[in-house]
Write a structure and sequence with these properties.
By secondary structure, the protein is mostly beta strands. The protein is built from three helices and 14 strands. A hairpin with a 5-residue loop joins strand 11 and strand 12.
């Protein structure tokens, strides 16, 4: 069976259909731990305190769980065509005020750079030119509407629509922003008798109130810094009676 010129093996054909998953980052690290503080009766510090005082200082435990992951794989909008590599290194990414928000240029996208303020326009326009025909990512056609002139057999020319212009090697080819989170808990048991005790817990979700940035817009390449993908710090207190 002819598979093409040159012929492709089954493994080569498989590679043509392969692309990175947008849901699985290249790296993910998780950690957790629990630690009992050395305070209170029988401990290294304040080991001789009275029983009532031990209710306050003894038996405290700390617990934590955290996650760090590299950015998820992403691709550009299928309504735009790539005329080169749009990716930028960290030191090339410019931050600006545009469209009413503070945004960061994650890759060379498609937008009017003259609308930006609070940024060096010379550097910005070198990455995203004012001339739409010079942008790395842009719609096809003389009118930038994804319609290209096609000459028919009778010699006439018709504007013909083109759809889904992102080929297989432009899908999920660049990494989005890194994200991380740290949760923390402090808890202890208050024992009032052999059978009755109360557990007090204080939970801190997103302990450091760290914002994780969203993925950039797949068309403009702009990352909206007024938003975050995770919840802000949440503090929760709870009591549990055991008897």
């Amino acid at each position: 069976m002819v598979q093409g010129e040159p012929n492709l093996t089954p493994s080569q054909r498989l590679r043509l259909g392969y692309f990175n998953s947008s849901e699985v980052p290249p790296h993910r690290v998780r950690w957790n731990g629990i630690y009992e503080l050395p305070f209170g009766r029988g401990k290294k510090f304040a080991g001789g305190v009275s029983k009532p005082l031990n209710l306050l200082v003894g038996g405290w435990q700390l617990a934590w769980i955290g996650t760090w992951q590299s950015g998820n794989w992403s691709s550009v909008s299928s309504s735009r065509y790539l005329f080169g590599n749009p990716t930028l290194s960290k030191d090339q990414r410019l931050t600006m005020n545009i469209f009413g928000r503070r945004q960061r240029l994650w890759f060379k996208g498609y937008f009017d750079p003259t609308q930006a303020t609070g940024v060096d326009l010379t550097k910005l326009e070198a990455l995203v030119p004012v001339d739409r025909s010079q942008r790395v990512l842009r719609p096809l056609g003389p009118n930038f509407d994804n319609k290209i002139p096609v000459q028919l057999a009778d010699g006439t020319t018709r504007l013909t629509s083109v759809t889904d212009m992102v080929n297989w090697n432009a899908r999920d080819f660049y990494l989005g922003p890194v994200s991380w989170n740290q949760d923390f808990s402090a808890f202890k048991y208050f024992e009032f008798s052999e059978r009755v005790k109360v557990r007090f817990t204080s939970d801190f979700f997103n302990l450091f109130n760290h914002p994780n940035d969203p993925r950039p817009n797949t068309s403009t390449g702009l990352q909206d810094l007024s938003q975050q993908t995770n919840a802000p710090r949440i503090i929760q207190f709870s009591l549990r009676l055991e008897f």
